[in-house]
Design a protein that fits this description.
Two copies of one chain form a homodimer. With 207 residues, the first copy, chain A, is of the alpha/beta class. In chain A, 42% of the residues lie in helices and 20% in strands. The first copy, chain A, contains eight helices and nine strands. In chain A, α1 packs across α7 (170-185) and α5 (126-136) crosses α6. In chain A, strands 2-7-1-8-9 form a five-stranded parallel beta sheet, with helices on both faces. In chain A, strands 4-3-6-5 form a four-stranded mixed beta sheet. The first copy, chain A, folds into two domains: 2-30 and 95-189, P-loop containing nucleotide triphosphate hydrolases (Rossmann fold), CATH 3.40.50; 35-85, Guanylate Kinase phosphate binding domain (2-Layer Sandwich). The A-B interface holds A 104, 107, 119-120, 122-123, 125-126, 152-153, 155-166, 175-176, 178-180, 182-184, 186-188, 191-192, 194-195, 198-200, 203-205, 207 and B 104, 107, 119-120, 122-123, 125-126, 152-153, 155-166, 175-176, 178-180, 182-184, 186-188, 191-192, 194-195, 198-200, 203-205, 207.
Chain lengths: 207, 207
């Protein structure tokens, strides 16, 4: 059996990562979603163990010390981390694993798992992103400006990914991500076994 | 506007390249299909200018001399070539171009157009391929054996492609190829302009 895909979705704050991931999981329940841990407060409607494991700073530090994270990062004073347990196990069983990680954390995962599928969500425009950030929190003009600049810096990191998907509508973005998953399953590097079976293992004609 | 995709579909003889390409073009009429030229005789139902340009050996040699081919190759005593005209023009206009090329010719195109999308069709099994080769022509046992061995050699070239797609049914294969096309459109290397527009051209933070 071939290994599962590690699919990582990232993007600047306010790009709609969470909503997109929720829809992918609703459409493709066979994908294992790795829930992140965070020290930030739950937003209205968020439940511990669903969107995140909400843990204290002390617990977070303990998990770091115990090497329980694939990656972790501090974003706006809060810690976010991806618990390692289960991810490798699921991938080895041939299951696909979905991660939603901030732009800082994602770069660390790329280094550790180079054969993952790295997808970067983009806002349709900077104006749209500004609107979404405004809706999310009651920001002061200074804080808003800082967030927009920080979003631009984050978006520039998109160049380090394999794919970019414009989140103009959740449906469009999810369709594109599903295509990326199907395509990645067809990558020749993930299908060596089939080729070996059809031709014999070391059968390679040079041209 | 970004450049169109060059999508090349290849695979061993008898893998069903022609049928798959026909269905893709029926489903996606916006794709430009580059018709190959060949010196082989038309099969029943084939029309000049539709499946192929059927030309004589003399004409073929003239086209070679006039540098009119992106690639050409001899397969079982017949010549097959991809006329260059229109391909670059269409790509530059942002149109996607589909090529169906034998395994030899495809390797030549890879060298000339490294940013193309290279898809290799696989038979579901060697038994199935044997069946299809038998149906196609009235083969002697020796000729059949030679073709099977040659098909194995061709299949081993699949390792040089980006994607492999098992042609277990035309519908499945076409769905996968459509996903590959959608995914390739999202490749970060094809979306530098969008990233530049969102962040300013040389905005790249190193991490």
């Amino acid at each position: 059996m071939s290994k599962g895909l590690l699919i990582l979705i990232s993007g600047a704050s306010g790009t709609g990562k969470g909503t997109v991931c929720k829809k992918i999981l609703a459409d493709m329940p066979e994908i294992f979603y790795s829930i992140s841990a965070t020290t930030r407060q739950p937003r209205t409607g968020e439940t511990d163990g669903v969107e995140y494991f909400f843990i204290t700073h002390e617990e977070f530090k303990k998990w770091i010390a115990e090497d329980k994270f694939l990656e972790y990062a501090e974003v706006y004073g809060n810690f976010y981390g991806t618990p390692l347990n289960k991810i490798e196990e699921r991938l080895n069983r041939g299951e696909n694993v979905l991660l939603e990680i901030d732009t800082q954390g994602a770069l660390n995962v790329m280094k550790k798992i180079p054969d993952g599928v790295y997808i970067f969500l983009l806002p349709p425009s900077l104006e749209e992103l500004e609107k979404r950030i405004k809706i999310r929190g009651s920001e002061s003009p200074e804080s808003l400006k800082r967030r927009i600049n920080s979003a631009k810096a984050e978006i520039s990191l998109g160049r380090k990914y394999q794919y970019v998907v414009v989140n103009d509508s959740v449906e469009n973005a999810v369709e594109k991500i599903k295509s990326i998953i199907s395509a990645e399953i067809c990558r020749v590097s993930r299908n060596k076994k089939i080729l070996d079976e059809l031709t014999g293992e070391d059968f390679l004609i040079e041209n």
